[in-house]
Structure to design on (911 residues):
């Protein structure tokens, strides 16, 4: 399950007892950890914002209101709107089937759900190229019916679906496993049908886990680069998502513009982290 | 009752619907596309396949990818355990914010991370200008990018183990005469080892396939700084679908084994947890 | 409503959880399913509720066969072992749930639901807790919410799975009495599962003793306690002393040897009489090993001189004073009432 970090309830509680190490050791350890985090996390983040404004606010504003930038933002939003709900629906269905029933082949199914985490995004893009390129499996069919998937929006959506599809399922499976089925059984004996049981009992119980999975899924869908890069074709104003647009600007040495768009995505990443922490805190309270 | 034998009876509804949808979705989105890799590879002759995947440029990319991913995962184990320890055991100002920040590599688009790191480590960059050796466009730069994207794995695997760790065990060890270092090596390390190993494997698997954050800092010189995913991309851009697919098949098989290894580790971790 | 269980069997994989269960329960009865873990009692309860499906056999509520009716439509009240309260709902919403999820045309009005829930909450003495969440309640309170929730749908049958299992000893006893009174007031046909013999003896009208997926004995608490029909039931209901002995001319003799030497006699600790002087031929000599006083009764551990077997006896405090026995002294013991089971190989 490479790429998956389970929802952690109640984080950062300091140990009940005071640390047993001498003060100097504690100080050195904290300093080393913070120095590493500063170097690897904070400095890159600062670099993005400072470089973005290096040539003044005018260039920044122009960069993010450029028509190509705007169309990249729109395409990214479109991809998110299409992929995240579908993968959330899949996640709930898969978690229901896997945690509420016993059937043969269950562990194989779980492993298959993990697969996209372990596979290089480039390969994720490649497989769709193999299906839909002119020489691919459906190449002739698509050509005859004049349908474009590769180097067009459908290809980008498919590749993004592939790389983001385990997030919600992976979050819900352990959660629903630990909750068991007793509450659902109670609901059924009280006369509620399946849908009502799901709606009134299961869904409220998994809502924080579901939201957490959706947040992670969303972050990845917005930022996916490798897989989308293979299938997009880099057609400016048409098939460029925000990360691809950044790449093009960067390769054209328009650093300020590249970092301006990157700063937008960094803000989104920070919002993601804040939301994620709020959900963890909420889940810790109610779970 | 004409119930299918492979499924245990349950009074909960929705089995057919949920499993049917799941299976269809997984088949169309994952299994069919992945099968294409093997179908296309199978259409190559064995000699062609072997020639493609053992070409010196390809072998050099394996070595670079494995070496850099391994180095990055090692750095992540050391600092990941340190960060988890500091976050769980000590209190200091700003701890909550820093704890939240650890997940940044998961939330930040890889391309954004890539250009930021390149800017920092370029010869004239904020950090690069102080270093006497080249970082960007060398394997060191690649390792730095891979360390960045793998950073949260070890921290997030080890942190809950340390949180649930029974501190009485440490006290018992101290009462029995062990010093702090002995306690750490003999009591704490065995407890967190499975989680740290799982974190290592996750970071390694992620680093092996990583593309976005590496392409900017790598320089992408064949034989020197060309990672395997990039090589696949290059072959695709030259319309060498067969070559790209063959290399992808090799990587896929490695990914499968890594996944099996990780699942095994996780099973081990869970078993360790079960008795506590 | 009466319940009839006819030839119900159930296997989980290769494990035979229930084999050929036949059981009739009268309207208004309070029945205990008693047995050790793995005896199949919970499986049987879940099959009656429709939460599991039996492999074969039939279940009737009144004259209606409900074997293939789904749990949702069986209209039973089920109290789960760990209560299964809806964590995200208040006590009020938990109790109201069964009424709220009814199809529109059968659903009572909001006002009626509120009234009904208030009534039930006052019955379980939780009026003041309506707006609390389950996590804010004690174990005993949760148990009562679970019961109120089950009663809200006016079930004709009430099923309780280890209803007091997760509670501490004092609360357990209180709730036991309270359940008994509740049953006396409402007369809902009720079945509860327990592994605690004291609980079954204390609360139930009838006890069904189960072991390894089979029914060992059905009877009133007095019957199963005083007249167990198998060594298992004897052993499971209360402490028991086992004497190895033999049968001679229809008379049981203590000690091995002779024909039918394999027969066993079961004697309850309070049916062991202790004398200082040898009162009769069948009395045996034993040494007092240990004496401990628990409230008004005195437990005495003895070791038989001839066989080196240990015995447990129970005396009243008065009798203990009268005898004035001390550890290490030799006394004579005699079973007042014993039950002999002959292993099947030796049956006469």
């Amino acid at each position: 399950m490479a790429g998956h970090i389970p929802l952690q309830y109640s984080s950062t509680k300091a140990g009940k007892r005071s640390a047993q190490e001498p003060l100097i050791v504690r100080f050195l350890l904290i300093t080393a950890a913070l120095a590493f985090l500063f170097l690897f996390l904070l400095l890159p983040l600062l670099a993005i914002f400072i470089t973005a404004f290096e040539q003044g606010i005018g260039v920044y504003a122009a960069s993010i209101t450029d028509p190509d930038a705007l169309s990249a933002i729109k395409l990214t939003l479109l991809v998110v709107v299409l992929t995240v709900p579908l993968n959330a629906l899949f996640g709930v269905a898969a978690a229901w089937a896997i945690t509420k029933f016993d059937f043969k082949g269950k562990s194989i199914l779980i492993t298959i759900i993990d697969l996209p985490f372990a596979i290089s995004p480039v390969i994720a893009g490649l497989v769709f190229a193999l299906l839909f390129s002119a020489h691919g499996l459906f190449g002739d069919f698509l050509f005859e019916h004049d349908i474009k998937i590769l180097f067009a929006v459908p290809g980008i959506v498919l590749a993004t679906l592939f790389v983001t599809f385990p997030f919600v399922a992976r979050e819900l499976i352990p959660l629903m496993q630990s909750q068991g089925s007793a509450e659902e059984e109670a609901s059924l004996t009280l006369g509620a049908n399946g849908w009502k049981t799901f709606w009134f009992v299961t869904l409220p119980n998994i809502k924080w886990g579901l939201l957490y999975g959706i947040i992670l899924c969303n972050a990845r869908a917005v930022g996916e680069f490798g897989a989308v890069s293979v299938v997009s074709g880099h057609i400016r104003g048409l098939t460029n998502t925000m990360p691809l647009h950044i790449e093009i600007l960067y390769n054209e040495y328009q650093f300020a513009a590249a970092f301006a768009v990157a700063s937008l995505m960094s803000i989104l990443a920070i919002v993601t982290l804040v939301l994620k922490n709020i959900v963890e805190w909420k889940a810790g309270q109610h779970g | 009752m004409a119930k299918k034998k492979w499924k245990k009876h349950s009074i909960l509804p929705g089995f057919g619907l949920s499993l049917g949808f799941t299976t269809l979705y997984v088949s169309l989105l994952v299994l069919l596309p992945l099968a294409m890799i093997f179908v296309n590879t199978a259409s190559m002759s064995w000699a062609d396949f072997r020639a493609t995947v053992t070409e010196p440029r390809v072998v050099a990319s394996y070595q670079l990818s494995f070496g850099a991913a391994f180095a990055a995962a090692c750095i992540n184990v050391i600092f990941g355990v340190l960060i988890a320890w500091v976050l769980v055991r000590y209190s200091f100002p700003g701890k909550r914010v820093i704890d939240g920040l650890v997940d940044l590599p998961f939330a930040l688009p890889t391309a954004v991370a890539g250009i930021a790191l390149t800017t920092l480590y370029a010869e004239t960059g904020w950090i690069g200008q102080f270093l006497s050796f080249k970082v960007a466009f060398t394997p060191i730069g690649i390792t730095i990018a891979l360390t960045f994207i793998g950073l949260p794995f070890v921290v997030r695997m080890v942190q809950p183990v340390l949180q649930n760790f029974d501190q009485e065990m440490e006290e018992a060890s101290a009462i029995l005469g062990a010093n702090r270092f002995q306690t750490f090596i003999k009591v704490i390390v065995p407890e967190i080892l499975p989680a740290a190993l799982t974190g290592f494997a996750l970071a390694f698997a992620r680093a092996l396939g990583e593309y976005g954050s590496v392409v900017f800092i790598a320089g992408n010189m064949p034989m020197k700084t060309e990672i395997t995913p990039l090589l696949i991309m290059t072959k695709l851009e030259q319309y060498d679908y067969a070559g790209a697919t063959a290399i992808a098949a090799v990587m896929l098989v490695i990914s499968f084994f890594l996944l099996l290894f990780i699942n095994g580790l996780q099973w081990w971790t869970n078993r360790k947890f079960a008795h506590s | 409503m009466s319940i009839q269980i006819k030839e119900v069997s159930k296997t989980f994989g290769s494990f035979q959880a229930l084999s050929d269960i036949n059981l009739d329960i009268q309207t208004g009865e309070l029945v205990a399913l008693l047995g050790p873990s793995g005896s199949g009692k919970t499986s049987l309860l879940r099959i009656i509720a429709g939460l599991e499906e039996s492999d074969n056999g039939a279940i009737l509520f009144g004259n209606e066969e409900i074997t293939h009716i789904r749990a949702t439509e069986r209209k039973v009240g089920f109290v789960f072992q760990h209560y299964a309260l809806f964590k995200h709902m208040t006590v009020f919403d938990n109790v109201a749930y069964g009424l709220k999820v009814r199809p529109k045309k059968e659903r009572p009005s909001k006002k009626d639901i509120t009234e009904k829930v208030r009534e039930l909450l006052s019955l379980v003495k939780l009026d003041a807790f309506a707006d609390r969440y389950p996590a804010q309640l004690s174990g005993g309170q949760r148990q009562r919410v679970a019961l109120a929730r089950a009663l809200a749908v006016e079930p004709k049958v009430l099923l309780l799975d280890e209803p007091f299992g997760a509670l501490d000893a004092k609360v357990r006893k209180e709730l036991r009495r309270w359940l008994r009174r509740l049953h006396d007031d409402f007369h809902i046909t009720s079945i509860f599962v327990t592994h605690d013999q004291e609980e079954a003896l204390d609360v139930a009208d009838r006890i069904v003793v189960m072991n390894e997926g089979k029914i060992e004995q059905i009877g009133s608490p007095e019957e199963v306690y005083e007249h167990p029909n198998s060594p298992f039931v004897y052993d499971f209901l209360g402490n028991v002393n086992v004497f190895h002995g033999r049968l001679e001319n229809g008379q049981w003799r203590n000690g091995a040897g002779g024909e039918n030497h394999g027969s066993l006699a079961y004697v309850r600790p309070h049916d062991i009489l202790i004398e200082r002087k040898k009162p009769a031929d069948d009395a045996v000599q034993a040494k007092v090993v240990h004496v401990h006083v628990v409230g008004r009764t005195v437990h005495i551990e003895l070791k038989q001189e001839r066989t080196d077997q240990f015995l447990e006896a129970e005396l009243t405090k008065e009798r203990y004073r009268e005898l004035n026995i001390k550890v290490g002294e030799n006394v004579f013991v005699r079973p007042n009432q014993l039950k002999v089971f002959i292993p099947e190989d030796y049956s006469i």
Remarks:
- The radius of gyration of chain A is 23 Å.
